[in-house]
C-alpha cells in the first residue's frame, strides 16, 4: 500500500485539483502549482501550510512507513518505536490540507462571479490519502519489536 501511494503521489501533486472560472477566464490549479503560486504572490502562511501538510508531511509519513516495512535491519528497536510514534503524530495532521482547500474554495467562490470545479487531482490525492491510511492501519506495531534473523 505504501509503495502504491508513493507511485501515485507525484501524479496527485501535478494533476489539476480544481478548475477556476472567473469572469470568463479559466485556469487549472494543481497542489504543486497552487502552492508555488501562493508563495510567489506573497501568501506565505497559506503557501507554507500547503507545503507542510500536502507535500512534506505525506512524503515523510510514506517514507517512514516504507522504512519500517523494508529497511528495518538498519534500525534498532528503540529507533523503530520512535519512527512509529512519528508516523502516528504525522497521521494526526493528515487532513489539515483538505480543510484548507475547503476554506480556500469558500473564500474564492463569490456567488456567480467565480465557479470552482474539482479536477482529477482530487481523486488521485484522495487515493493517496486512502492508501496511506490503509498502510498505517494494516501495519503491525508488534513487528517493531521483532528482531530480524
List keywords for this structure.
149 residues; alpha+beta; three-stranded antiparallel beta sheet; elongated
* Order of secondary-structure elements: HEEHHHHEH
Note the main sheet. 3 strands, antiparallel
Widest sheet: strand ordering: 2-1-3
Number of domains: 1
Shape: elongated
Give the number of DSSP strands: 3
Tell me the distance between the termini. 25 Å
Fraction of helical residues:
55-70%
Strand content: 5-15%
* Cα Rg: 18 Å
Give me the secondary-structure category. alpha+beta
Mean pLDDT: 80
Q: What's the tally of helices?
A: 6
Low-confidence stretches: none
Short overview:
The chain has 149 residues and is of the alpha+beta class.
Please explain how this structure is put together.
The protein is 66% helix and 12% strand. The protein has helices at residues 2-14, 31-40, 44-70, 77-92, 96-108, 120-138; strands at residues 16-22, 25-30, 114-118. A three-stranded antiparallel β-sheet has the order 2-1-3. The chain contains six helices and three strands; from the N terminus they run αββααααβα. The protein has one domain (2-145). The longest helix is centred in the middle third of the chain and has 27 residues, at 44-70. The chain has 149 residues and is an alpha+beta fold.
Amino acid at each position: 500500500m505504501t509503495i502504491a501511494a508513493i507511485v501515485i503521489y507525484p501524479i496527485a501533486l501535478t494533476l489539476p485539483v480544481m478548475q477556476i472560472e472567473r469572469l470568463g477566464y479559466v485556469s487549472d490549479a494543481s497542489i504543486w502549482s497552487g502552492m508555488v503560486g501562493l508563495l510567489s504572490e506573497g501568501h506565505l502562511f497559506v503557501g507554507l501550510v500547503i507545503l507542510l501538510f500536502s507535500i512534506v508531511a505525506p512524503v515523510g509519513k510514506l517514507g517512514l512507513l516504507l522504512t519500517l516495512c523494508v529497511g528495518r535491519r538498519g534500525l534498532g528497536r528503540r529507533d523503530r518505536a520512535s519512527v512509529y510514534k512519528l508516523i502516528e503524530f504525522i497521521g494526526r495532521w493528515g487532513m489539515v490540507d483538505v480543510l484548507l482547500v475547503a476554506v480556500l474554495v469558500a473564500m474564492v467562490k463569490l456567488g456567480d462571479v467565480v465557479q470552482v470545479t474539482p479536477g482529477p487531482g482530487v481523486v488521485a490525492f484522495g487515493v493517496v490519502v486512502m492508501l496511506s491510511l490503509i498502510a498505517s492501519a494494516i501495519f503491525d506495531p508488534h513487528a517493531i519489536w521483532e528482531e530480524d534473523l
